[in-house]
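Table 4 source record.
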Amino acid sequence: MAGLPFKPLQLYFAYGSNLLEEEFRRTAPGAAVYTRAFLPKYRLAFTKHSITWQADAATIIPDDLGVVWGLVYRIGNQDLESLRKREGGYRECEITVHPDSAAPIKTLTFIAEEMCPKRCGPSVKYLEIIIQGAAEKKLPEAYCAYLRDLLMGINKPSVPTEPPA
């Protein structure tokens, strides 16, 4: 026998809305949490238009000074196929992430293929889901604060153009 025709389990790095357990379970109900980890020399960006969110969804882009925190899951073939269907407009890639105080590991993730021509940016609700997922997964507080700052950038109160009467 030459071996199995498939990998029974695959490691997957979640960094956007899939950080939130409830959100991820809709696509990959059989996934198991493996570890939290970071991806050096990348940063979070919102460039891929999402019909689901009616705004731009998260991706990761190279950045020598950046770091993206996320969660590594173990997923089986059925969940991986569901994830592939859900992540249309993203390409599947192998990356190396760094778990807390452990050796680097290879995982797969999805990276956006195209830029949104309108550059809509993320919606408030979408960012709130990412922030909630980051807190739920106990990502480092500095990273959670960074995500909250992104939300504050969207939620900035408008500056009045005229002084109050």
